[in-house]
Amino acid sequence: MRAIGLSRSARTRGLPLGGWLLGPVITVAALSGCAGTALAHPAASDPGHRAASRSARPSASPSPKPSGIGLPAPAALTPFTSRGPARQGSWQPAGRRVRGQVAVYETRLVPPGGTLPAGIAWMNSPLLAARLYSGSISPGGGPYRFTAPIQPAQAASVVAAFNGGFKMPDSHGGYYTQGRVIDPLRRGAASLVIYANGSVNIGAWGTDVRMTSAVVGVRQNLVPLVADGQPTAAARGPWQAWGNTCGANSCAASVPGIDHQWRSGVGITADGALVYATGPGLDPLQLARLLVRAGVIRGMQLDINPYWPVFATYDPVTPHGLAAPSNGHRLLPGTIQGPATFFQPSWARDFITMSVRPAG
Asked: Which range marks the domain in which residue 248 is found?
């Protein structure tokens, strides 16, 4: 599959990261994230498919049905290497409990061939309800009912939140929310799908997941990273196909990008748990292998480069207390963004929240 060259001018610039020197500081609204992928999509240029995406809803199996009972806690993960942080692969509870049960577990693993630990979060999906928040930069347009900042009515049940994908021109995919196709959904694109009951699924559009009357949100980004419990052939291919990256010490357009860069991804396990992973020194195949090690059978890459990946949990003092930056925690300390990100009115990118699912 031939890679298509992409301009480096769309990369993140102007934000400090430890010893990084990234040039002049610019506003969030001006930040572009990463330039997109070069992977081809069979239906990307098919006018008939684009028209169908806006009007017709192909039949599909119904949305996942939550049981109301949480999944068993995940088993400890076997490390890829003995070199790593203490308790590598052991899960630790995070975030507020849901009816007394742990809804999120977190751990760290050094990826195969890597030296820096990545963070992995396992989400007990039957206890949680997903919601897609939209922004003026991604997907653009609007106004949207759910957008940053998270409002008190929703903060009373938020357990965790994490970043979405590339800006839409770079995602080579589509976006659906609030009954509207914001960008045409593309067959074969890696898709995070949210249903009216709060369930979430991940897979290739048109085969693993489809449009039904129960779908309330679809966020597509590139092509699948994990399928059938294994890294895809694309994950093993040229890393340049998975987005335009920053350099080793700078995101300036003049600095060559590197393969091992901040990346994030999400996937679904065979029993329906949602798994998120992020790390500072990952190539696409390492990200895929981290997700697979955590039990993912279908997975996708989300946003990349230092400024964008973030996973946060919230643990208010009282069961119905408001999630807030003051009671939030990063999955991985090195992420620039943190618990406050989703409560900032200036945050103009899409993201996903996982909240307490109502009983019954």
From this structure: 8-356
